[in-house]
Every structure is written in structure tokens, then in C-alpha cells.
Design a protein that fits this description.
This protein is an alpha/beta fold. The protein has 8 helices and 8 strands. It folds into 2 domains: 72 residues; 190 residues, TIM Barrel (Alpha-Beta Barrel). Helix 2 packs parallel to helix 8. It binds zinc ion.
Length: 277
């Protein structure tokens, strides 16, 4: 009887041990499997991340190539300097001569003091065009009436002819052909009359699509380049004024950068896209 009980206990403990080992083995297998799955999903994640990174890098290179191509196409640039002559005109002319770049100077007679007369003569002799930007640049005088404008304009015209012996027939309205005056019906009618009069007299008025107006001095060159380098053709308005002396530093760099991108500097031509507002 005791022997049988012992045998029963032995069998029971053996069965229990077997059961425990089997259960543990099963659990181990499950743990290994989930570990493997985890490992694989981690591997997948790393692979996915790498793919995304590669894709981003490819996109970045494509974008850069695109930008370069857009710039490399280059185009035609017209440089214009308004409101001179000034204390920086001589230095501007030096840069243009060194870089062999032609430009248009839209001058105001009121700034042609006696010691600056030779600047206009020199500019014309060096192949630049002298355009009429009115004598006074004074809105109160020029934008009062057609007659007021023409009187001021003719005074400037006479001065330019005397100093340069040429007539470029180029005009830039102070403030552009759509200036603040055009906000009113009366102002718009006057501007329409002035534009009509300029056309009738054979003058060519031109506006701009790139300007150094309102440019933060620290971003002067950057701002000009951002406005220019996505275009295939630009008329650039810079100011020939002592308060834009930083132009002297920016201009040579702008010219070099533009040429590197395939742009060429030209004078305006009646038959080719004149920028007008
Ligand atoms: Zn002006």
C-alpha cells in the first residue's frame, strides 16, 4: 500500500515536471518568436528611415540642379541708375568701365551741379545712355499738369543735349508710370495724358521689375539677386545717390554673379520687351 502510494507520488511529480518543462519550452519559443518579430520590425523601421533619407537627399540634389538650371538659362539684364548724378557717379562709372557693362542713367538736372557736368559727358562717351527723369523730380511741379511736366522735362532735355551731344529719347517717370498719383481718377488721367504725350513725341518710357527700393542695407545684394535670378529678363532700378553707397560694393559682385549664371547686360532696345507697369 505504501509502495503504491510512493509510485503514485513519483508518477505525479514526474508528470508535473514534464508539464512544467513543456510549458516553459513553449513560453521560451513564444518569447523567441516575438523577439525575432521585434528584431525584424526594428530592421524594417531602420530600412524605411534610410529609404526616406535617401529620397530626401535625391530631392535636395534635384532641387539644386533645378535652381542651377533656372539660373544657368540666364537672360537679358538692363541696368538703370536713377536720381543722379551724385557723389557716387564717378565710382559707378569706374566699375562699369572695368566690367564692360553698359547702363542707363536717368538723371535729374537739379543734381547736375557745375562740378558734376563732366560726369554726364563722360557717361555718354563711355557708351552709356542718359535718360530723362525730369529736371526737378518734384511731384508738386511735374505732376500738377501736362504743361508743368513738359516744361520741367524740356529743361532737363536741353541740359542733357548740351552735355552729351546726344538724345537717348529714354524717359523714366519719377515714381514710375503708375505712381501714387494714379490712385485718383484725376491723377490717372494726367498720367495717361503724359504717357500719350511721350509716345507722341517719340520718347520711350520705361519702368522696372527689380528695384533696390526699400532694401535692408544688410540684404542689399541678396535682395537684388533674389529678384533677378529667377527671371529671364530684368530691368534693374538702382539709385545713383550718396545714400546708396553700398551699391558700389554690391555692383561688381552682382555683375560677376549674373554673368556666371549666363546673363548678359544690354541697353534697352525698342523692339525688345521694355518693362512697363
Ligand atoms: Zn527717381
Amino acid at each position: 500500500m505504501r509502495q503504491r502510494l510512493f509510485l503514485l507520488l513519483l508518477l505525479f511529480s514526474l508528470f508535473f515536471s514534464f508539464l512544467t518543462v513543456t510549458l516553459l519550452a513553449g513560453q521560451n519559443r513564444r518569447l523567441r518568436l516575438s523577439e525575432e518579430r521585434l528584431f525584424h520590425s526594428r530592421e524594417d523601421l531602420v530600412q524605411a528611415r534610410n529609404l526616406i533619407r535617401e529620397e530626401e537627399e535625391r530631392n535636395r540634389i534635384l532641387r539644386e540642379e533645378n535652381d542651377t538650371l533656372a539660373g544657368a538659362a540666364g537672360g537679358r539684364l538692363i541696368l538703370t541708375f536713377d536720381d543722379g548724378p551724385s557723389d557716387i557717379t564717378a565710382a559707378l562709372l569706374d566699375i562699369l568701365r572695368e566690367k564692360q557693362v553698359p547702363a542707363v542713367f536717368f538723371v535729374n538736372g537739379v543734381n547736375v551741379t557745375r562740378n558734376r557736368e563732366s560726369l554726364l559727358t563722360r557717361a555718354a562717351a563711355e557708351g552709356h545712355l542718359i535718360g530723362n527723369h525730369t529736371y526737378s523730380h518734384d511731384y508738386g511741379l511735374i505732376y500738377r499738369s501736362t504743361e508743368g511736366f513738359l516744361k520741367d522735362f524740356q529743361r532737363n532735355e536741353k541740359l542733357i543735349s548740351r552735355l552729351t551731344d546726344t538724345r537717348s529719347m529714354l524717359v523714366r517717370f519719377p515714381g514710375g508710370s503708375r505712381n501714387s498719383l494714379c490712385a485718383t481718377g484725376e491723377g490717372r488721367a494726367l498720367m495717361d495724358a503724359l504717357k500719350g504725350e511721350m509716345d507722341r513725341q517719340g520718347y520711350l518710357y520705361m519702368d522696372w521689375n527689380v528695384t533696390d527700393d526699400g532694401t535692408d542695407p544688410a540684404l542689399y545684394l541678396d535682395s537684388l539677386e533674389r529678384q533677378i535670378f529667377w527671371r529671364s529678363s530684368a530691368t534693374i532700378l538702382c539709385h545713383d545717390r550718396a545714400d546708396r553707397a553700398l551699391l558700389l560694393e554690391a555692383l561688381p559682385r552682382l555683375i560677376d554673379e549674373a554673368r556666371e549664371r549666363g546673363y548678359r547686360f544690354e541697353l534697352p532696345d525698342r523692339s525688345e520687351g521694355i518693362v512697363r507697369f
